Amino acid sequence: MSYLRPLPGLLFALAISVYQPLGHAAVSTSYSFANITHSNAGAEADGEANLNVEVIDLGGSQVRFTFTNTSTSSLADVYFDDGTLLGIASISSSSGVSFSQGATPLNLPGGNTVSPAFVTTAGFLADSDAPVSPNGVTQGEWLSIDFNLTAGQTYSNVISALALPNNGGDGDLRIGVHVQGFAAGGNESFINIASPIPEPEIYAMLMAGLGLMGFMARRNKTS
């Protein structure tokens, strides 16, 4: 009967709403990276598949950026082209990783090849201590950089800026990383992708919604 046809879409919408239970509030959002230097196709694919940053709400006007790298390359430099951050509060890392505020060079290598150009905010950068590659972030390791936020800014503002509504222009927040020692050879630079990585529970919710739609479609055909 025709009045049953809207039900699959309605049930899918209801399935989506299940993902947001009462009192639920997201506390972190993860992003992957896109290559900007294109020096080696193998290294480019390696970095895009294995580099991630998790942006965590610490409360008290602080946000943490935790970098991981699941390949054998070494994440050696981190840069921020910023619209919401006030300054680095602290840097911490797993065993085997050693970073300090400041970096050489002062701007993301290859940052001038994107439009608008990636321009590192003064003081918003860190690199691995010598020896550079051994102290960078590689498999099973992590690096966290905590930032104080500018007055009136919140975690939500940071996430909005990371969405790059101005295509990397004023007010947006871009994160650049320089990575060395790829198995394929060479060094590469990457910038965060605007869209966050879907959390596993979102995939589960989508599959549940699609299952409901399929079930209702079959039911309508037999009715």
Q: Could you explain the architecture of this structure?
A:
By secondary structure, the chain is of the alpha+beta class. A 10-stranded antiparallel sheet has the order 5-8-3-2-1-10-9-4-7-6. Helix 1 packs antiparallel against helix 5. The protein is globular. The relative contact order is 0.24. The N terminus is likely disordered.
Summarize the structure.
The chain is of the alpha+beta class and 223 residues long.
What is this structure's SSE topology?
Elements: H1 7-18, E1 28-35, H2 41-50, E2 51-59, E3 62-69, E4 74-81, E5 85-93, E6 99-101, E7 125-128, H3 132-135, E8 142-149, H4 155-162, E9 174-180, E10 188-192, H5 200-222
Antiparallel strand pairs: 1-2, 1-10, 2-3, 3-8, 4-7, 4-9, 5-8, 6-7, 9-10
Helix pairs in contact: 1-5
As a whole number of angstroms, the C-alpha radius of gyration is 21 Å
What is the share of helical residues?
Answer: 25-40%
Shape: globular
Structural class: alpha+beta
- Distance between the first and last residues' Cα: 7 Å
Percent of residues in beta strands: 25-35%
Average pLDDT figure: 85
Taking pLDDT < 50 over at least 5 consecutive residues as the criterion, the unreliable ranges are 1-26, 201-206
| Main sheet makeup | 10 strands, antiparallel
Count of discrete structural domains: 1
Q: What spatial order of strands do you see in the largest sheet?
A: 5-8-3-2-1-10-9-4-7-6
**Total DSSP E strands:** 10
